Amino acid sequence: MYTQTISQDLFSYCPPLTRQPDFDAFWEKTLAAAKAVPLEAALTPYDYPSPYAKVYTLTYLGADGTKVYGWYLLPAFAEQTELPCLIHYHGLGG
Question: How far is CA 49 from CA 52, 53, 59, 65, in A?
Fold first, then answer.
């Protein structure tokens, strides 16, 4: 049986920063460009064969105006207006 121990060195490890000099300027420019594009979010009900989930297709415009597609799922029994959320982008999780 494999057991793993975590060294205290792991908790005190501080690698050197690799942030480029234009980091702040890059993000200011990028976020300003994204805010300039209207979101145009749309939810369309999707006929899903389960009484336990409400399913919608979701679209919105990305920062460069490209339409982004996704699924929006809710538990059918939920009556809250605010619920926890999980966003998963395929390919960004390893």
Answer: 9, 9, 21, 33
Stated pTM of the model? 0.62
Please state, in angstroms and as integers, the Cα–Cα distance from residue 74 to each residue in 39, 61, 79, 80, following that order.
Answer: 21, 22, 10, 10
pLDDT in tens for each of the 94 residues of the chain? 555 666 778 888 888 889 999 999 999 999 998 899 999 999 999 999 999 999 999 999 988 889 999 999 999 988 777 888 888 877 755 5
